[in-house]
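The methods section describes the discrete structure representation at length, but only in general terms. Since the whole study asks how a given chain folds, the encoding of that fold should be made plain. An entry of this sort, consisting of the sequence and the corresponding backbone structure tokens, reads as follows:

. . .
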Amino acid sequence: MIRVLFACVGNSARSQMAEAFCREFGRGVECASAGSSPAAMVQPNSVAVMQEVGMDISSSRPKGFGDLPDLKYDYLVTMGCEVVCPFLPGAKEVKWDTPDPHGKDITEFRRVRDIIKAEVSKLLADLNRQVPREP
């Protein structure tokens, strides 16, 4: 199984959305998210825009890297910020330049959600091409 960690600063918006999309669409992919400086809660606009596409992240909580059970991941996806990430031996780093919607209106959260959905879909398609198929 391929393991992917999505990372941003607060783990309250972008990385939470990426994790949710990965869980929904990633067959054979284990997903998690964390932040270098976790926020107190997932941003309400993140919850709202994900509900608009049928995904409930209302019970999600921001996590720091130290909150993860282990740091053995195949891929580390950073969201396009100056995030301080842990050293993940063997993990391939994938850098996305995803705008941070923090402090913006819900329209910007929708725009960022759609960017993340497209990026996650592309990542999963790339991973699917790399995984050998059983006969």
Summary: The helical segments are 14-25, 44-52, 106-130.
